[in-house]
């Protein structure tokens, strides 16, 4: 994989996490024997506050990779990998205990942190995990391949600057042809002098 492909993969993963975090992760239908309570939709930003911060960090790191050198890309690769791990851990924490993740928002909405009812999650947390996996994989590849990309780039630049074999052959043939023409011009001039002609006369 090229550095551009890996960087685009990291950016795509970070954007996917950001998009997923703005959507509803948990849907709560509280139950009450006395009054009817409103249903509550909790976004990823509220259910797992660290997800947005980590995805922004991953996006900034991926963007910086486009201008970074070998050492910088390796550091960025580590940041991407750690951000991906953090997002995955935070998302699994939400999925493993939905009621605890929803407690703060439910408490602010209803005035009590623990409410009986139905707590269900949507598919958006899984898309966040997918984006985190992309960022993590891109970070690992970038850390391992950063030095190799630098070598490949130098080789490509050297190939562009060095003349090709065909160009050298053409230049050699042109030089040989020019030398032969000059040689024949000299012979023609001596023949003209031998006949008593002035070769410089037009």
From TrEMBL:
Keywords: Membrane, Transmembrane, Transmembrane helix. InterPro entries: Trp_biosyn_TM_oprn/chp. Residues 156-202 are annotated as: Disordered. The chain crosses the membrane at residues 48-68, 75-103, 123-144. It comes from the Bacteria. This is Trp biosynthesis-associated membrane protein. It comes from Neomicrococcus aestuarii. The lineage of its organism: Bacteria, Bacillati, Actinomycetota, Actinomycetes, Micrococcales.
């Amino acid at each position: 994989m090229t550095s551009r492909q890996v960087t685009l993969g990291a950016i795509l993963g970070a954007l996917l996490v950001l998009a997923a975090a703005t959507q509803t992760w948990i849907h709560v239908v509280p139950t009450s024997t006395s009054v009817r309570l409103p249903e509550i939709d909790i976004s990823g930003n509220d259910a797992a506050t660290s997800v947005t911060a980590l995805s922004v960090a991953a996006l900034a790191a991926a963007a910086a990779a486009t201008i970074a050198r070998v050492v910088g890309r390796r550091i960025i690769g580590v940041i991407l990998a750690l951000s991906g791990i953090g997002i995955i851990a935070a998302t699994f924490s939400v999925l493993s205990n939905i009621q605890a993740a929803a407690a703060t928002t439910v408490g602010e909405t209803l005035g009590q942190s623990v409410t009986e009812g139905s707590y269900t999650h949507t598919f958006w947390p899984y898309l966040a995990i997918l984006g985190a996996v992309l960022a993590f994989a891109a970070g690992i590849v970038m850390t391992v391949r950063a030095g190799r990309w630098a070598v490949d780039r130098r080789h490509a630049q050297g190939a562009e600057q060095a003349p090709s074999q065909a160009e050298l052959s053409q230049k050699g043939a042109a030089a040989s042809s020019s030398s032969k023409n000059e040689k024949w011009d000299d012979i023609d001039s001596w023949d003209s002098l031998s006949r008593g002609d002035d070769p410089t006369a037009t």
